[in-house]
Amino acid sequence: MSLAHGRHYLAIPGPSVIPDRVLAAMHRPAPDIYSGALAEMVRGVLRDLGTVARTRHQAAIYIANGHGAWEAALANPLARGDRVLVLANGLFGHGWAEMGRRLGLAVEVIDCGKRNAVDPARLARALAEDAHRELRAVLVVHVDTSTGVRNDIRALRDVLDASGHPALLMVDCIASLGCERFEMDDWGVDVMVAASQKGLMTPPGLGFVFFNERAADARDAAGDVSAYWDWKPRVAPEDFYQYFAGTAPTHHLFALREALDMLVHEEGIENAWIRHEKLARAIWAAFDAWGACGEIALNIGEETRRSHAVTAAQAGTPNGTALRDWLTRRAGVTLGIGLGMAPPGDPAWHGFFRIGHMGHVNAHMVMGVLGSIEAGLQALGVAHGEGALEAAARVIATA
After folding, report:
1. CB within 10 Å: which end of the chain, N or C, has fewer?
2. Do 53 and 182 form a contact (C-beta atoms < 8 A)?
3. Would you say 84 and 107 are in contact if contact means Cβ atoms under 8 Å apart?
4. Is 112 exposed, middle or buried (0-12, 13-18, 19+ CB in 10 A)?
5. What is the pLDDT of residues 190-207, one digit of tens each?
6. What mean pLDDT is predicted for residues 360-385?
7. Which residues contact 140 (CB under 8 A, 6 or more apart)?
């Protein structure tokens, strides 16, 4: 006998839960891909994406996952041999750096570890050492999904401005867009990448690259860009077909239109940010209580640096994997693996797990996950403190 029968809850940090009405929006015949209603809908989608990103600048949509958006962001304003600096504190910062190397960029990495936010002072020192202003771009992940850390993007822009350095500031918001406060224009971000499958509540398959005039000028100066990744014809197409360098991802666009209606026109992006923060704080309160006894702890100690979209935690080896397995088999809940928290084959990997709380998530979903974790800890005999659900409920009760 298992209590997992029923609607399974995928509480991983992406793909996130897809709302029923977003799924329903995809259930329709294929449309005309050359003109008419679809073209007008895409123009509205682009406007609303700008609202979510808080930018008046342009965005290109790619039929790609986040890795495709990474490549597009690098391939347009940069050329082979250009120097870039990556500020990394998790698997995805290092992944973007590796993408740059594969494209022939001269990549330098400042590794800030897996439990710390990027230190702006380390960026300041790196810029000061670049006396000839050879660095073309600074890359950073807003929220690294593997570690659950949130970086201060405004502080990094302040360092760039104070130094007078002309490098582009490029930010990965794949895990944060729609969940965390992000102000592309006010924070001085030149290029931002995102994807459809997390805070935007749409199936995986759409990548987005937002860019301002500085980045557009850099693209013009960088030389040739491959036909598919070139953002220029996508944002100023001669005809609708060029928006996607071919056939549009029609049903993903229908889904995204519905998701943006929910996020922008019904809830409002600022309310969505508040919702994510409140639910994250409920989760943190539960972990504080559990952590009073045993090895359970959040990966990021400083509250102001914790993500509001994903929580990375440890429960001691092999408790993390055991807990995930028990929850899937017995409770109908799947948690995220400890992605990148220990080398492959290292037994320590089995001590970590992650909770995704991004996009289409509310109080009863969070309380259900926390209650299921509590049951799993008891069933497995994992040492933990008491009062976690009460602590989480108190946070939600003050909403």
Report:
1. N
2. yes
3. yes
4. buried
5. 999 999 999 999 999 999
6. 98
7. 86, 87, 93, 118, 151, 153, 156, 169, 170, 171, 172
Say what the alpha-carbon torsion angle 191, 195, 199, 204 is, to the nearest 10 degrees. Answer: 180
Cross-strand partners of 323: none
Gyration radius of the chain's alpha carbons: 21
Residue 282 backbone dihedrals phi, psi, to 5 degrees: -65, -40
Q: What SS3 string covers the chain?
A: CCCCCCCCEEECCCCCCCCHHHHHHCCCCCCCCCCCHHHHHHHHHHHHHHHHHCCCCEEEEEECCHHHHHHHHHHCCCCCCCEEEEEECCHHHHHHHHHHHHCCCEEEEEECCCCCCCCHHHHHHHHHHCCCCCEEEEEEECEECCCCEECCHHHHHHHHHHHCCCCEEEEECCCCCCCCCCCCCCCCCCEEEEECCCCCCCCCCEEEEEECHHHHHHHHHHCCCCCCCCCHHHHCCCCHHHHHCCCCCHHHHHHHHHHHHHHHHHHCHHHHHHHHHHHHHHHHHHHHHHCCCCCCEECCCCHHHECCCEEEEECCCCHHHHHHHHHHHHHCEEEEECCCCCCCCCHHHHHEEEEECCCCCCHHHHHHHHHHHHHHHHHHCCCCCCCHHHHHHHHHHCC
Please check the confidence at residue 178 and state whether its pLDDT lies above 80: yes
Name the nearest CA neighbour of 220 among 207, 239, 236. Answer: 236
Q: Name the token pair of 273.
A: 């940010």
296 close to 328: Cβ distance less than 8 angstroms: no
Whose tokens are 């666009």? That residue is 253
Exposure of 371 by Cβ count < 10 A (0-12 exposed, 13-18 middle, 19+ buried)?
Answer: middle
Amino acid identity of residue 52, one-letter, is V
**pLDDT digit string, tens, across residues 100-126:** 999 999 999 999 999 999 999 999 999
Q: Peptide bond before 343: cis, by omega within 30 degrees of 0?
A: no
Contact by Cβ (8 Å): 238, 37: no
Provide the token pair at 201.
Answer: 């509540």
pTM over 0.70: yes
Structure tokens at 346: 């290292």
